[in-house]
Amino acid sequence: MRLLEFQAKELFRNYGINLLPSKASTTIEEGRKHAKELGYPFVIKIQVPVGGRGKAGGIQKCQNDDEFELKYPQVLGLTIKGEKARAILLEKMADIKKELYLSLFLNRSKRCYTIIASPEGGVEIESVKNQIIKEVGLGEVSDQVAREVAKEMKLEGKAADDFVDILQKLAKLTVEKEAELAEINPLAIMQDGSLMALDGKFVTDDNSNFRHDELQKYQEKTEIEERAEKSGFSLVELDGDIAVVGNGAGLVMSTLDMLSDNGGKPACFLDVGGGATTDSVYEALTLISKMHRVKGILVNLYGGIVKTTVVAEAFLKAYDDKLINLPVFARLKGTESDKAKEMLKNSRTKIFDSVEEAINAAVMGIKR
Amino acid sequence: MTDIFKILKGTPEDSDYKKKGVIVQGITGAYGSLHAKNMITYGTNIVAGVTPGKGGQKFEDKVPIYNTVKEAVDASGAKISIIFVPAKFFLGAAKEALEAGIKLLVAIPEHVPVRDTMEVLDLANKKGAVIIGPNTPGIMIPELIKIGIMPATPFKAGKIAVLSKSGTLLYEISDALTSAGFGQSITIGIGGDPINGTRMIDAFDMVKDIPDLEGLVVVGEIGGDSEEILAQRIIDIGFKKPTVAYIAGRAAPKEKRMGHAGAIVMGTYGSAESKVSMFNKANIPVAKRPSQVPVLLAGKMQQSD
Predict the structure, then answer these.
(1) Where does CoA bind (chain B) (predicted)?
(2) What global pTM score does this model have?
C-alpha cells in the first residue's frame, strides 16, 4: 500500500527522523485548531496518494487567518490525477539552505535494496541529477556505507552527521516495515546545518500485510476491492463501460489491451484467479452489478486449472437470480469448454470462437 | 551458467536419464495433491512428498510421504522440488529444501512477501541452487517432464523456447504456437512477482545455446525492466535466432497493480512503451495480440532462411 505523506511522517517520527512540526486534519474546524497550535507561517498540503501536488496547486503557503480561510477549503476541494483529498497537512514553514534527495527502494533487476541519493533534490526522481546509487543487499546500511554516501554528497560537519543518522534510520524503517520504497524528497539542509525530512513517500509490500497489523490502519480500500480480496480474486476499477473478466492477471491485461485497441473502454480488470469457484465468480458478478457504468461484460477464459463450467454455472445462477441483466460476450477455451458452451447456449451469453470476435461484438453491442 | 537441461533431463549415462526424481512439498493439500496427480499423469517422476506430520503415509498408494525434505532427499536422492504451501509458510519450506540439498526449486505460491523471496535467493546463491518463481506456473520440457501447474494440452515437443511472466498467457501463446506447428523445446514461467528467482535474462541464458533451437518467444508484461535488460542482452551478444515478443498491459493505468504483484508502472519505470521500444531496437517484433505471435515468428523464420 502507498501511505499518504502524513502517515509516512508518523513512521518517520517513530523512528526518530527529524521533521518539522505538522498536523493532519480533515475539516476546517480541526484545521483552525491546528493553525493556532502551529502558529503562522505554515504550508497547507493536500494529502493524496499521487505525486505532482505542487504543480496542481495542492501545496500553498499560508501567512495569516484570512489566507487560511481562503486556501484551506480551496486545497481540500482539489482533485489531483483523479484523486480527491484524503486530509490536509499543515506544516511549519522553514528557512531552507538546500534541498537533497534520498531514497531506499527495492531494486527489481538487481534483486536487492538500493540507496539513491543526490545533492540536488526537490524535483521528481526522473529529473534528479547526479544520482549516487548504492546496492545494499537486504537493506542493512552500515556506518561505513552511510558515511561514504554522505561524502559523495559532499556533506560536511553537522549535515554529514545528520545525513548518516537519517539514512540509517530510514533503512531500519524500510527493512522492518517491508517497504518497496521509502523516499525523502526533499531532505532539506536548514540554515543551522541540520537536516529535516520535508516530504515522505512510503510504499509497502502488500504481500507482507499479514505480518504488519500496525500498518493496517493506513489501508485504504473501497468496499468492492475489500470484497474482491476476501473472495480471492483481484479487481481494479477503471472508468469505462465494459467489464473485463478472465483468469490469470496476464490474460486479463492482454484482454484489456485488445479491447482498448478496438475502441472499447474497460470498466474493470477482474481476474477470477486460479482458485475460482462458482461462488467466487458469482461474487465477482455481484460486484460488477454494483458498478453502474457497466453496459456489458467481456469474458476471456483459458481453462487450465479453472474449469470453464464452474464459471458458466455462476453466470447461469446470476441470470436466474436476476443479478445481472447485461449482455455477456464470452470466449471460452480449455478445460470443459465444450460443456460450458452448451450450458450457456440459451442464456444472454454470446459465445465466440476467438477473443477478437468477442471483443468486436462487445464494442459494437455496447455502442448501440 | 546453469545447465537447466542437465538438471531436468540428466545425461545419457545417468541411470535416471529422462526420469529425474521430483519431490512435492505440500503434497497432501488440495492444490498440491491435484497437481501432483497431474504431474504423475504427464509422466513426471514424482518420487516423494513432504507434509509435516504425515510421514509414513503414501500418496495415491504409491508415492511415499515424509515429514521433512531431508528425509525425502535421503530416501530418493532427488535434487528437484516443487513447493505448494500457503505464502506465509514459503520461507520455511524453501529454506528447508535448500538446506536439504535441493538444486532446482519451483516456487508456485503467489503472495510471497518480497523480503522472504530475497532471503531465499540469498541462501540459494550460497548453495548454488536455482529458484523458479515465486508465483510461477512452473517449468516444463513438453512430452518429457512437467514441474508446475500448467495444463498439458497447449504444449507439444518442438524447437521453440517460451519464457513468460504470466501463467495463462504462457498457455494461451503456447497453444497458438502448437496450433501453428511450432512445438516447444522448453517453457519457463518466470513468475509475476517483482523479484524473480530466475529473471528473464537468466532464463534466456539457460535456453540460448540449445543446439537445435529454432526460435524464442518472450511473453512479458508491464512492471520492472527485465524485458528491456533481456533485449539489451540480445543486442549485445548478437543473438540471431528468430525471436518474437508479446507485452501485456499496454492499456493498464499507471501506478495501479494489475493482479500480479510485479505488474505496476511507477512513473515511467515498467511501462509497456519502454519495453516495446527496446525490443524494436533489438529488431524483435512485438505482437499486439497473443494470436499474432506464431504469425510474426513464421515471418522472422522466413527472413532468416
Answers:
(1) 28-31, 54
(2) 0.95
